[in-house]
Amino acid sequence: MNCVHERINLNKGKKQVFGLFDCRTNRKRNHSLEVIKSHPDLVIRIKDVTLGEEERNNMNSEKRMLEKKRVTKAAYALLNSGGGVIEIQMANKSEQPVEMGQDLEQALRDLVQSSDWQAFFETQQRGNHFYIFVKSWSCGSEDSSAKPRICTEKSSLKRRCGTSVIVMSSTDAFTFLKGKKSVGCGLTDGGAPPVKIPRVMRQNILETNPAFEIFQSEKLEYGQILPFPESIQVEFKKFDTDNVQNNIKDIIPEYVSAFANTSGGYLFIGVEDKSRKVLGCPKENVTRDSLERVTNEAISKLPVFHFSSSLEKVSYKTRVIDVFHEGNLHGYLFVIKVEAFCCAVFSEAPISWMVDKENGVIYRLTTKEWVGMMMGADPETASNQSSSLGNLCEDFECQLSLSDSPPHCRPVYSKKGLEHKVDLQKRLFPGMNS
Length: 434
What we know:
Radius of gyration: 27 Å
Strand order of the largest sheet: 1-4-5-6-8-7
Strand content: 15-25%
Number of domains: 3
CATH architecture of the largest domain: 2-Layer Sandwich
């Protein structure tokens, strides 16, 4: 694994300027970052970044945030691609030594989730160029047995915790996925060990909830108080503006995926959470068909991942309940009943980056790519390993396992006793000494 980078002349390489989309790779290009293709190491060039604590504090906040995002995106991509160098062309063009800036340093600490900043990054300034030498994601000093194999900005995996929705950290997501993988298409029940539960049992669990009785209702009264509070399986939302459909579309990825990744549940749209009063969505703003249409469209777009050949999608039902006020139809209470999912439902594709040096692309991983790299098996366990390789391995004392390493790392072997070095060279490279 290449965890240490030589201090090299970085100005020799030619840059690859990004367009918007590469038809050959089907990867979206990032026009704000440049990959220097001709250099043997991975080098990403970022133009016009202001450095220095005082200078950055005096910047426009929006511009400072955009610059920080560009730097961290490059760092994510290099950490996941075996390491490399970020070359920053300073906007303030100071020939004097400057610090990076506290906000950038904090962003990189948050990125690796470690106070040991030097385990992943080193910096050096040459004139108005500032270099961040990024080591491989596997180079951290902590125990890697419970560490995800790639560095992730956002897992996009959510679950219920009491009455809240939480986004799983990359470590939590790794543990969650390991649990799912270990049982095939198993389920977790509010944090309990995964077990396989038939669909009929999943439905029965939801139908014992007092919310099920309301879900079966055909009409309710405006101001009626529901006989149950929010819980791990119940969420109330109140939308009484003319943007109801957009609001529903925005919240569905968060709440439906969280219910599906926990133990299922009910999303009530048209209930005030504190008072539990039924208010409904005013009929002037929505129709029955529009409520169901926007819901079906939003749920159909949720990324799902299976550890088996299953093609099962998110299982849910909707109910539009009439809400009357003084004998007249006021609007609708809309309820989405979500079943617990067998594997993993994402609110969107995870946010994680890698570098395709050959095509000069920094690209965002798809959900399938991200899970595959996060959970990838160690190559040494591959079933099709040849017998010749097995015999060769017998002559070695140890092999560095790749089970917790980034995808671009390769195995390193050491031989028993340095006195056998010449013999090893002859065996592996028989033409060397002829």
